[in-house]
Amino acid sequence: MAWIWMLPAAGAVLLWAISLGRILSSPAPSSLPPNPHLLPPLRDDRRSRNVLLVVAHPDDESMFFAPTIFFLKSKGHNIHILCMSQGNADGLGHTRKDELYYACDTFKIPRKQVKVLDHPKLQDGFHEKWDHGLLAGLTMEQVQLWDIDTILTFDSYGVSGHPNHQDVHHGICKYLQENGQGNIEAWELVSLLHEILGPPSLDFLVRLIRSRFIVERNRQCIAFLNFSMLSLVKGIDLASLNILRKYSGPVDIWLSSLISSSTSKRPMYTLINSSPSRSYQAMAAHKSQWVWYRRLFVMFSSYTYINILQKV
Ligand SMILES: [Zn+2]
């Protein structure tokens, strides 16, 4: 009966293969639900958006935002990157700045549209507290310089929970509050670890139950919903469930699709990266960071394959 213990492993491999097949079968970067209203032209005289991606460190763009960058590029939008630090925690700031430019070459983002700051009050580190007003002011400078109409950044958890990422989020929120949110459309990358932790999880489940997927009796989605509820009933730590999601690679496409299709107070989309190998290439441009465990991270991370964006 030893073979019976191999069934879960075989099932996981099969699920991984099916999920990867689902992602690779997309002819181009796409969104779920498919929606032409995701970043439509703002004015008749300008068909594409001027998007500003605001990150904390060189490599954030490749490690976390690659599906979004590929999606926006495929739609003809003009991407700019503002990186708030050189990532100098290990004294490699200049090297890492250059590596960001190399990564942007793989994304086909012109180097003149990339700004890497080295401000004494914005240094890389878990124990560095970044001033939100300063971040808002620096963002405003680049918004005006590049005529930005759309901002993209971290959510309040900051994807990995890094305090610098979280400060960038709060800096953008401060900028939006102080400079008229009406003129700028802002989107945040939803953190898989943060999304259904804590009290919002009940609200999340209620939204799932009311979602049109359930009405349509979609078997796969109900299976995932049952899994989530069983996890709650059996007392499995939700944090563990979410860590599983974060490192489930392409498998998370099913639950992310369900989340972005459920009724939500704010618009939410799942963006699918139809060429995950290009994420790998972009991250490989960060040679000083390209150690074995980051290679594994890029392979197993859901952020390589999908991004969930939510309107700020
Ligand atoms: Zn970072």
Write the layout of secondary structure elements.
Layout (H helix, E strand, L loop, with lengths): L5 H19 L5 E3 L17 E6 L4 H5 L1 H9 L3 E6 L9 H15 L6 E3 L15 H15 L3 E5 L8 H16 L6 E5 L2 H4 L4 H11 L1 H4 L3 H16 L3 H9 L6 H9 L6 E5 L3 H9 L7 H9 L5 E6 L1
Parallel strand pairs: 2-3, 2-5, 3-4, 5-6
Antiparallel strand pairs: 1-7, 6-8, 7-8
Helix pairs in contact: 4-13, 5-6
The structure holds zinc ion (ZN).
Short descriptors:
312 residues, Rossmann fold, binds zinc ion, signal, LmbE-like_dom_sf, N-acetylglucosaminylphosphatidylinositol deacetylase activity, GlcNAc_PI_deacetylase-related
Walk me through the structure.
- Helix content is 48%, strand content 12%.
- It is an alpha/beta fold and 312 residues long.
- The protein has a domain at 47-194 and 266-311: LmbE-like (Rossmann fold), CATH 3.40.50.10320.
- Strands 1-7-8-6-5-2-3-4 form an eight-stranded mixed beta sheet, sandwiched between helices.
- Helix 4 runs antiparallel to helix 13 (276-284) and helix 5 (132-146) crosses helix 6 (163-178).
- The chain starts with 5 loop residues before the first helix and ends with a strand.
- It binds zinc ion.
- Zinc ion is lined by residues 56-57, 60, 162, 165.
- Zinc ion binds at residues 56-57, 60, 162, 165.
- It is an enzyme of class 3 (hydrolase).
- Counting DSSP E segments of at least 2 residues, the number of strands comes to 8
Low-confidence stretches: 194-204, 210-241
CATH evolutionary superfamily of the domain at 47-194 and 266-311: LmbE-like
Reading side by side through the largest sheet, how are the strands ordered?
A: 1-7-8-6-5-2-3-4
Q: What sort of overall outline do the alpha carbons produce when their principal axes are compared?
A: globular
Distance between the termini: 52 Å
Strand content: 5-15%
Query: How many separate helices?
Result: 14
CATH architecture of the domain at 47-194 and 266-311: 3-Layer(aba) Sandwich
State mean pLDDT (0 to 100 scale): 79
Largest sheet: 8 strands, mixed
CATH class of the domain at 47-194 and 266-311: Alpha Beta
Q: What is the CATH topology classification name of the domain at 47-194 and 266-311?
A: Rossmann fold
Please compute the radius of gyration using only Cα atoms.
20 Å
What string, H for helix and E for strand, traces the elements in order? HEEHHEHEHEHEHHHHHHEHHE
**Bound molecule kinds, no repeats:** zinc ion
User: In which range does the helix fraction lie?
Assistant: 40-55%
Structure classification: alpha/beta
Family: Belongs to the PIGL family.
GO biological process, one term: GPI anchor biosynthetic process
Signal peptide: 1-21
EC number: 3.5.1.89
